[in-house]
Amino acid sequence: MENKKIALVTGGNKGIGLEIVRGLLRAGCRVYLGAREATKGHQAAAELAPEGEVVFLEVDLINQATLDVAAAQLQRQEGHLDILVNNAGINVTGDGVPSTADVRSVEQVLRTNFLGTLAVTQAFLPLVKQAAAGRIVNVSSPLGSLTLSGQNDWGLLGYSASKAALNMLTVQLAYELRDTAIKVNSAAPGYTATDLNNFAGTDTPAQGAAEAIRLALLPADGPTGTTSSSTGLLPW
């Protein structure tokens, strides 16, 4: 009898998301690779096919219709979802320090990174509830820490605020689901070389993916309602 865990990773066609998909495939999961562009999603799935069972799924955080269709497809094909990794996110030109950040740019980042992730979570949570012990991982950032943001000159108000809001989703959802077997945590990659920072980061995408993969595969005695990096827990 097949007992593979079923996983969905949003933004799985590149960068950290691609490496999260790869890591979950290597752990024996069947992974649905969520991406908003079909061509890029299919290409990424084909690249990863030698690693295991990977299926492209159209998931656009700001297009509710794609979320509804994807959730219905997973319901038909799998009946449940063991792992949801909310990885997709953006960074835009115009974001900056509070005194000069373009309000429209800040709004765009919040709409995708926070509201879009909330929409994804709500769309797939019924499937996670049908799993024996679901795991939800929100890919956040050290920039989402209020404590660390007060000690560093990061200068990205919108992006930082979106990740802080994502951390709030983590703790509130973890509390809401406290009497279930579902665990909800935030993973904070380090400064990873991706297109979000024009590949200026010092960590590889594989290094950036490691904590999200660990949290996605937490055992029954693992934590819930935390934010952590590969070096340990982070302050809120």
State the main characteristics.
236 residues, alpha/beta, Rossmann fold, 8-stranded mixed β-sheet, 7 helices, 8 strands, 42% helix
Q: Which sequence of SSEs, written as H and E, runs from N to C?
A: EHEHEHEHEHHEHEE
Proportion of residues in β-strands = 5-15%
Subunit arrangement of the protein:
single chain
Which regions contain 5 or more consecutive residues with pLDDT less than 50?
none
Broad shape: globular
The end-to-end distance, rounded to whole angstroms, is 42 Å
How many domains, as an integer?
A: 1
Task: From the alpha carbons, calculate the radius of gyration and give it in angstroms.
Answer: 17 Å
CATH class annotation: Alpha Beta
Kindly identify the CATH topology: Rossmann fold
